[in-house]
Amino acid sequence: MLMALAHARGPGKSFCPSEAARRLSDDWRPLMADIRRVAAGLPLAATQKGVPVAPVQARGPIRLQLEQGTD
C-alpha cells in the first residue's frame, strides 16, 4: 500500500504515512509503528521538515516519497 501511494503521488511528491494507516483502520494510530517499519524496508525516502531521516528512529511527523530513480 505504501508503494501504491507513492506511485500515485509520483516522483518528487510526498505523503504522510498516516494516509496508509487510515486506509487500513479507523483506529489507525496504533498502526503507525508498523507502517514506519515497513516503509524502512521499501525504496522510499523519509524526511522530517525536509531533512532525510530513518523512518523507524524519527520522532514526530515524517513524509515519505519515492527514492530518486524509483518510478
Describe the structure.
The protein is α+β, with helices and mostly antiparallel strands and 71 residues long. It has one domain: Arc Repressor Mutant, subunit A (Orthogonal Bundle), CATH 1.10.10. It contains three helices and three strands; from the N terminus they run H-H-H-E-E-E. It has a three-stranded antiparallel β-sheet. The mean pLDDT is 95. This is DUF3253 domain-containing protein. Residues 1-20 are annotated as: Disordered. It comes from Lutimaribacter saemankumensis. Pfam families: DUF3253.
Q: What is the structural class?
A: alpha+beta
Number of strands: 3
Q: SSE string, helix = H, strand = E?
A: HHHEEE
CATH class: Mainly Alpha
CATH architecture classification name: Orthogonal Bundle
Main sheet: strands, sense, barrel = 3 strands, antiparallel
Mean pLDDT: 95
Q: Using only CA atoms, what is the Rg?
A: 11 Å
